[in-house]
């Protein structure tokens, strides 16, 4: 049965803009739909938080954090986030739509994949995570469901819903967020997360791609969590014999239980993956995996969930523990008749029973009154206010019997100016009627003026940009007659322009005064050095001379940069000296006719001169040559032939 027919969102238009066309997938926190942006006429993916969670301020904040975080990651292997907003009880993210499937779909259909395919998928995943790690974020929920494989072969990482700033990752209390099969031991025990938890999850994903199975399984999430803490991930070759040890090493390195032993982030793991690939042969990479290795598993284990802290440090079941201490057996024991009263107590039983009944009645009335007081009109829930205008938030609070309290304003890159960023108490919290709610309203993106950096050394200019909440961008260099070498000529955009905080500013840096390189080819080395030094340039002479038909031995035969090129003052010109023309073998022309001798010698690259004398005025045969046939002479030199 097509469950999308029963989905109330299919066919609706969210926020007056996004028409929901079909449900793609449902997860533990949100449902993903294919939708049409009616404003821009493009297909996209709409991730809608479950309404039950939309009343929880922490989950709403996590959704907004995802939008902000991914919007800052400009990487070809990260699914883009276009927009974020709310419509009634629906909180959504508008994201790039990838036509294709997830890695989970591939594993369900095929089981294990070839090592080449596993590495081809893992490398772009690590590239995406590496960009996030170097930008200061941790994904925290890497799994095959979050790896999208497009019909065109592109691999993209999705669902940064649990993303957190590396600097803000601290121990959590009460619950751990994530998917049990991919949680690192430190996430389970301390609730802490840094880039190494993503490395661990990627190691588990690699194991699953190579074997078709998860490394740890159990009848309950608690058993899986216990194994993450106490058991090493086994080598893939233990399940799939014949896999090369390089792949075992990759899995072992990425899934080390001690986070200090793992690669420190995805970039470091990517380097290990590429190094391991170079050590594998084509036969090893294309080795066909065994079929039907996928084991049945509880789909719920693949969902992102909130795991109670009581489950995160499970204790092993003692060997001799009586199973009747839990579950149905415990209930049956409680239902067995209690022992009868001791003898001699019959006379006191009615009085005790009456007192017990009276106490129970009073307790019921007291508890009932307390429940009535808590759940009656004395308290009300804070309505969802995020992304609403300040006026709309005030109207919603008034309709709920609440007042607008203190209003603070803050810069925000994703929430439009004048709209609510957050409320205190958060949506879904219960407060007394007529209570006040503090609002934080967006001032829009923070903007700063691009500083005037002209004439400042590059290092100082970069430090100034960071101090002004901007980022140093691309550096280009050009000649300047009035700005010292290594100092800033200009910025793009220009000084005084307003830009969002965090924007990259391109810098144009001086190469110094331009010098037209003079021509010193054919000069002797001392003369060439003087000419170049007078022009403000330095000189370097190559260690090995070259043969040259144009320049005599010891003269400058070549220079870099060449004549007429521009160089910065203080740049070095490299000179190469000549070792003269190449030596070639002289043809033997004695006894040849004059015409044949000319053809042979000139064809070999020599000049020819004739010596006829009185006796050779009418001769036509070569009697002698200045360089004997078979000897070597500089190419282009003159050979004299004597004619008799």
From TrEMBL:
EC identifiers of the protein: 2.7.11.1
GO molecular function terms noted in the UniProt entry: kinase activity
Domain Protein kinase: 18-273
Keyword entries, A-Z: ATP-binding, Kinase, Membrane, Nucleotide-binding, Serine/threonine-protein kinase, Transferase, Transmembrane, Transmembrane helix
Catalytic reaction equation(s): L-seryl-[protein] + ATP = O-phospho-L-seryl-[protein] + ADP + H(+); L-threonyl-[protein] + ATP = O-phospho-L-threonyl-[protein] + ADP + H(+)
Keyword check for Disulfide bond: no
InterPro entries assigned: Kinase-like_dom_sf, PASTA_dom, Prot_kinase_dom, Ser/Thr_kinase_AS
Top-level taxon of origin: Bacteria
Domain (PASTA) ranges: 376-443, 444-511, 512-579, 580-644
Region described as Disordered: 311-348
Protein known as: non-specific serine/threonine protein kinase
Organism of provenance: Streptomyces albidocamelliae
């Amino acid at each position: 049965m097509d469950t999308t027919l029963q989905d109330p969102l299919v066919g609706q238009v969210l926020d007056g803009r996004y028409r929901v066309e079909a449900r793609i997938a449902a997860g533990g926190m949100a449902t993903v739909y294919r939708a049409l942006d009616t404003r821009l006429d493009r297909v996209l993916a709409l991730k809608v938080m479950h309404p039950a969670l939309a009343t929880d301020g922490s989950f709403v904040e996590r959704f907004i954090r995802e939008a902000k975080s991914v919007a800052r990651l400009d990487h070809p292997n990260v699914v883009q986030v276009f927009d974020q907003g709310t419509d009634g009880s629906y909180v959504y993210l508008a994201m790039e739509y990838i036509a294709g499937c997830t890695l989970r779909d591939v594993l369900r259909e095929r089981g294990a994949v070839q090592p080449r395919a596993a590495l081809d998928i893992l490398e772009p995943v690590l590239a995406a995570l590496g960009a996030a790690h170097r930008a200061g974020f941790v994904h925290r929920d890497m799994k095959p469901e979050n790896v999208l494989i497009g019909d065109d072969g592109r691999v993209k990482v999705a669902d940064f819903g649990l993303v957190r700033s590396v600097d803000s990752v601290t121990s959590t209390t009460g619950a751990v967020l994530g998917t049990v099969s991919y949680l690192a031991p430190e996430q389970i025990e301390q609730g802490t997360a840094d880039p190494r938890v993503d490395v661990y999850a990627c190691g588990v994903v690699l194991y699953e791609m190579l074997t078709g199975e998860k490394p740890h399984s159990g009848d309950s999430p608690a058993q899986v969590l216990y194994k993450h803490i106490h058991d090493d991930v086994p080598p893939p070759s233990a399940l799939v014999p014949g896999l090369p040890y390089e792949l075992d090493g990759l899995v072992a390195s990425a899934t080390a239980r001690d986070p200090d032993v793992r690669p420190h982030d995805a970039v470091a793991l990517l380097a290990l993956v590429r190094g391991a690939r170079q050590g594998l042969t084509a036969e090893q990479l294309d080795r066909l995996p065994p079929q039907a290795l996928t084991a049945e598993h509880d789909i719920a284990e693949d969902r992102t969930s909130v795991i109670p802290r009581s489950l995160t440090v499970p204790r092993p079941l003692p060997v001799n523990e009586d199973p009747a201490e839990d579950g149905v057996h415990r209930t049956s024991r409680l239902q067995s008749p209690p022992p009868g009263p001791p003898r001699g107590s019959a006379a006191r039983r009615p009085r005790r029973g009456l007192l017990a009944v009276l106490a129970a009645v009073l307790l019921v009335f007291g508890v009932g009154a307390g429940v009535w007081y808590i759940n009656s009109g004395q308290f009300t829930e804070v309505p969802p206010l995020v992304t609403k205008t300040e006026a709309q938030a005030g109207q919603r609070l008034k309709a709920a019997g609440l007042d607008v309290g203190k209003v603070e304003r803050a810069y925000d890159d994703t929430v439009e100016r004048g709209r609510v960023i957050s409320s205190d108490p958060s949506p879904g919290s219960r407060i007394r009627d007529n209570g006040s709610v503090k609002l934080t309203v967006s001032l829009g993106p923070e903007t700063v003026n691009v500083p005037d950096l002209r004439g400042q050394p590059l290092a100082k200019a970069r430090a100034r940009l960071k101090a002004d909440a901007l980022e140093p961008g691309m550096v280009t260099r050009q000649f300047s007659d009035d700005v010292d070498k290594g100092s800033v000529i200009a910025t793009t955009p220009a000084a005084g322009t307003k830009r969002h905080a965090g924007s990259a500013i391109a810098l144009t840096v001086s190469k110094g005064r331009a010098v037209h390189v003079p021509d010193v080819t054919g000069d002797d080395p001392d003369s060439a050095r003087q000419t170049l030094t007078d022009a403000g340039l330095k000189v370097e002479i190559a260690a090995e001379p070259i043969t040259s038909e144009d320049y005599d031995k010891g003269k400058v035969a070549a220079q870099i940069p060449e004549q007429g090129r521009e160089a910065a003052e203080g740049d070095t010109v490299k000179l190469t000296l000549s070792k003269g023309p190449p030596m070639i073998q002289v043809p033997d022309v004695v006894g040849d006719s004059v015409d044949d001798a000319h053809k042979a010698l000139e064809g070999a690259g020599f000049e020819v001169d004739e010596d006829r004398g009185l006796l050779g005025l009418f001769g036509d045969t070569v009697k002698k040559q200045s360089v004997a046939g078979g000897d070597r002479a500089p190419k282009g030199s003159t050979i004299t032939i004597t004619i008799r």
